[in-house]
Amino acid sequence: MPEGESKQDKQATQAQARQVIDVFHEISTLLNADLDRQTLSICISLIENGVNPEALSSVVKELKREADETIKVHESRSQ
């Protein structure tokens, strides 16, 4: 395969990946999931590599809950 074709294929694959992330980000926003594109990309990669989506969802929810609690503690200390 000539180099030009492989470069075009790589660019097309990257463009498709960006589109997928954009769609998932829109869904995340509509559902108020508050996940940025980088986090969504990581989650998608984990699922593609065999991580159970329900287990991943539970972990993400728990991490967000803990982060919210930490923010509240820091805010209450600064007042």
From TrEMBL:
Its main location: cytoplasm. GO terms for cellular component: gamma-tubulin ring complex; interphase microtubule organizing center; mitotic spindle pole body; spindle. It comes from the Eukaryota. The keyword NADP does not apply. Keywords: Cytoplasm, Cytoskeleton. InterPro entries: MZT1. The keyword Glycoprotein does not apply. It is found in: Cytoplasm, Cytoskeleton, Microtubule organizing center, Spindle pole body. GO terms for biological process: gamma-tubulin complex localization; microtubule nucleation by interphase microtubule organizing center; mitotic spindle assembly. Required for gamma-tubulin complex recruitment to the microtubule organizing center (MTOC). Part of the gamma-tubulin complex. Belongs to the MOZART1 family. This is Mitotic-spindle organizing protein 1. It comes from Hyaloscypha bicolor E. The lineage of its organism: Eukaryota, Fungi, Dikarya, Ascomycota, Pezizomycotina.
